[in-house]
Amino acid sequence: MTEELGPRDPARLAGHRLLGRLGAGGMGVVYLARSAGGALVALKTIQEEFAQEPGFRSRFAREVAAARRVDSRFALPVIADGEEAGVLWLASPYVPGPSLAEVIATHGPLPARGTRALGAMLAEALLAVHAAGLVHRDVKPGNVLLALDGPRLIDFGIARAVEGTAITRTGVVVGSPGFLSPEQALAAGPVGPPSDVFSLGCVLAEAASGRPPFGTGTAEAVLYRTVHDPADLTGVPDGLREVVARCLAKDPAARPAPEALREELAEDIADGWLPEPVTRLIGERTAAAAALPGIVPTEAVPAAGAGPDGPGPEGPGPAAGRRRPSRRALLLAGAGVVAAGGGLAGLLRARGGSDGGTADGPRHVIGLHADLSGAYAARGLAQERGAVLGLERFLAEADQLPFRLDLRVVDDGGTPEGAVGAAEELAADDAVLAVIGPTDTSVAAAAGQVYDATGLPLLSVSVGSFPITTTLSEYTTLLHARPATSWQGLALKELLESRPGARRVGLVDDRSAGMHSWEVTRAAINFQQAPPDFEIVPHVVPRLSAPFDAIAADLVARGADAVLFGGHHERAAGLAVALERAGWSGAAFAGESVLHPEFVSLAGRAAEGWRLIATCVAPDTDERASGFAALHGERFDGDAPEPFAAEAYDAVRLLAGALRDTAAEGRADRAALLARARQADHRGVGKRLGFDEEGLYPYADDGLYLYEVRDGAFRFQGPAPSLGAE
Questions:
Q1: 250 known ligand binder
Q2: Start and end of every Protein kinase domain (predicted)?
Q3: What rounded mean pLDDT belongs to the chain?
Q4: For the chain, which domains are there?
């Protein structure tokens, strides 16, 4: 619950409007705040006593940097941090649900099935925490927030920074007695990932029984029992008691690993994993969050020189127009950058010397990092064709340039290893001043650090929300030239709410699609927007899942009249077939990941009527797109452009125009090109291209399109519903 601000609390901090207190502890105060962009966040300040300790700031910075790398839907990420007026702070997305501690105290223990699901999801969160090089050190019911789609583990990333300060040496315990591991209680030996597993065992024991496994009383007494006495697991159900007991082994080496726990406890997060009073409480908190004060609205002013006509680059100016909706809590993933590998590594000259440049001038190169031989080779080839055509057209239309401009294409093979190799190859070529790519999100993070370390600008046209978008303050060269994946979910929510009769919607989050599915489905119940007008029937599908028949039967039996699927095309085809077998007669919606020819071929007639939101334009959209389609057919033997060919065409023209401008100013290098490209306002074939101060796509009313499967093919239906601005 939120408390009112006290007389000593600030009204604003680091650009955030403080709305109330969420809590306070030994390390600082946690506020409910709204960011400058409109997102609700939990903003934690650190006590001045800690901040003044020698070495604390450097330890804090290291731990927060590691916390930013945590990538799990069940661990609440650190999305911003800093210092203002001597106050250290960090922020995470706000989750309006109650803590597990509050639920146990108010409603008693969870059902056995709910406890198993809780354990599996928290084990998955710990996997991500440990993969980032962190140990949480304070896993307890108060640090677990509950939402309809699973828990959120919070408050990791700063406990280790506190250890070793004079404050801890004078009696402050880092962690919570009753949930500390024996090695933490004894302060003897290293505290590693097994310590978090012990704490998780304590959490599950209390969640299942309503009682802490080492009793209550003074901190000293509880710590003594933790070290010397067996855990009291009275009330823990038989099917859960044995695994909890193994988590509570005194010897760290005898405890199970989080990955094994996740598999052993795996449960489908369907309706009923939480008791009905808890789901009602979450709904009430969500509605209250939606009613909180917003930010003061402002009206954007169009950039100078911006215009709707013509595919060429416009004059530089700040990105303008209707800005995107609150994004930090929506992105949840973040960004890694382009992927690459070996393969077609030759230079493609778009035009020779006198037609588009001078043979005597310096040679500059735009790189294309694409999958030309892996799972997304068709999309990679489409981007290669679009880039080649874009450079040819730019050079044909440009005045005499004082440099040669080439396109270098590198194939990453669709693998993370290939992506790193391709990125290193492009980055090592000093003539390469910017890169477009990669083709697919699955390899994006692998090469991101290579590009950032070398200052090589990366412009992404087909990757959704990168793993690195949660650490954009540390990543400086990304230009994300398409709406974030979560916007697809918001547009799908708009479609569902405008569809007559859509009152009960099956929400199918397919874990095999990773963060993509999470972003699409999460946005449909995003608490920062108005609560949905429809009832949600949630299903979360494990990564290694049986066919969808049981889910389809449940959706039909419960009268769902629509389904929203978050996964990839192969799995969507399986769900479509299962729904048809179950007698489904409702509507089906999905994100861009289903826009793949194999969806139609695999699903057959079951694919008919599926509606998708995508970020690529169709060639018959309007005059600009149809003109591009004609050019593409003329250049490539009559072939129609495939998805993302137009987007690569626009990306090359934007970068080439920015390079022309920087060269005219006497400076043509990676840093100058990045700075000029960030200011671009380019009206392309498919959408307006520009970037906000973080290099992300800013236009909430552009760049999303609706497709529908009709007569065995994807049919373009026009722009998606506008998301507007907050």
A1: no
A2: 16-274
A3: 81
A4: 102-270 (1.10.510.10), 328-483+622-695 (3.40.50.2300), 486-614+709-719 (3.40.50.2300)
